[in-house]
Design goal:
The structure is a single chain. This protein is an alpha/beta fold. The protein has one domain: Rossmann fold (3-Layer(aba) Sandwich), CATH 3.40.50. The chain is 39% helix and 19% strand. The chain has helices at 2-10, 45-54, 76-84, 102-106, 117-137; strands at residues 32-39, 42-43, 60-67, 88-96. The chain has a 4-stranded mixed sheet, with helices on both faces. Strand 1 and strand 2 form a beta hairpin. Helix 1 (2-10) packs across helix 5. The radius of gyration is 15 Å and the shape is globular. It binds flavin mononucleotide. Flavin mononucleotide is lined by residues 37-41, 66-69, 97-99, 101, 104.
Length: 139
């Protein structure tokens, strides 16, 4: 949510959490982004279900995740899925997010202090690139 809020500081974005998303029709938006924490290597099931529910109406999409390690590879499966379903995938972003879960805390309290200002800057650069790509592919 913090990453979405950082993006919304520099781009005209409507943010909805997974429950509020029910109120919106994805067809009313030029671009739809899906973000999630990573749980056991995957996007939250609720987010994946939301994507599935709207799959036919999605055209221009991007995804982003936060995780203890911040690895972008966590986005790969979902990216492949979206590409396989012929969506115009505009980008994929990942950064570290604080994990309070105790097992991850035990392995060094990874991602302490994240997302930080550098992560927010990177997210804002990313959303600029997403919009540029949208403008270039939807002439
Ligand atoms: C149950 C659980 C499983 C997690 N699994 C992973 C994981 O596989 N890899 C990783 O890097 N981080 C993992 N994390 C850390 C979260 O992805 C990270 O803290 C994320 O920023 C949480 O986002 P949220 O605050 O939006 O829920 C896990 C956290 C929890 C609570």
């Amino acid at each position: 949510m913090k990453i979405a809020e950082a993006m919304a500081e520099t781009a005209p974005i409507t943010i909805a959490d997974v429950k509020e998303a029910e109120k919106y029709n994805v067809r009313d938006f030029d671009i739809v982004g899906f973000g999630s924490g990573i749980y056991a290597g995957k996007f939250a099931k609720k987010i994946v279900n939301l994507i599935d529910k709207n799959l036919d109406d999605l055209k221009n999409v991007f995804i982003f995740s936060t995780s203890g390690t911040g690895k972008i590879k966590y986005n790969e499966n979902l990216l492949s899925y979206l590409n396989a379903n012929c969506k115009n995938v505009l980008g994929s972003f990942a950064c570290k997010g604080l994990c309070k879960w105790f097992i991850f805390a035990l392995v060094g309290g990874i991602a302490k202090g994240h997302p930080d200002m550098d992560d927010f800057d990177a997210a804002q650069t990313f959303i600029g690139q997403v919009i540029d790509k949208y403008n270039n592919t939807n002439i």
